[in-house]
Amino acid sequence: MASQPHTTAMWEQARDCIAATEEHPFLMSMLDGSLAMPNFQFYILQDSHYLSRFGAALRLLGEKENFSEEEKAALRGFADGADFAERGLHDSFFKSWHKQVTDVEPCPNNLLYTSYLTTVVVTENYAEGLAVLLPCFWVYMHVGQRLLASRA
């Protein structure tokens, strides 16, 4: 599917930031296996907190009246994906590590970011709610594709 002109313009504006993200030392060390286990565990625990709050924000957005039933179902499906598919992977790590997500609190940056997402979804119109959540999908997908391509 071809990008719309405004989407292409946004990606172009963010190009330097995206390039830095693609080459971030944390991601590179995760890719090459040199990331220290405590750092990986911290990341997975924080990601689980993030996904829980992101899924909740998707559900809240799906309650807005501006969406069709089909769009609401899609948002609930995306929330379910965050809750079940991704967290299922995390739970397998937690089991092997003998840890639970409740063992740690969300770090301040995680809490601030997810609180911001939720606040925008709750207090602003549906378009702004979509706008605040959509980059999460885009960047995760883009970086994931780049990481997979790097492994090949």
UniProtKB/TrEMBL annotation:
One Pfam family from the UniProt entry? TENA_THI-4
Give the record's GO biological process terms.
Answer: thiamine metabolic process
Assigned GO CC terms = cytosol
- Source organism superkingdom: Eukaryota
| Domain Thiaminase-2/PQQC: from-to ranges | 11-147
Q: What is this protein called?
A: Thiaminase-2/PQQC domain-containing protein
Q: Which InterPro entries match?
A: Haem_Oase-like_multi-hlx, Thiaminase-2/PQQC, Thiamine_Salvage_TenA
Q: Which organism is it from?
A: Hemiselmis andersenii (Cryptophyte alga)
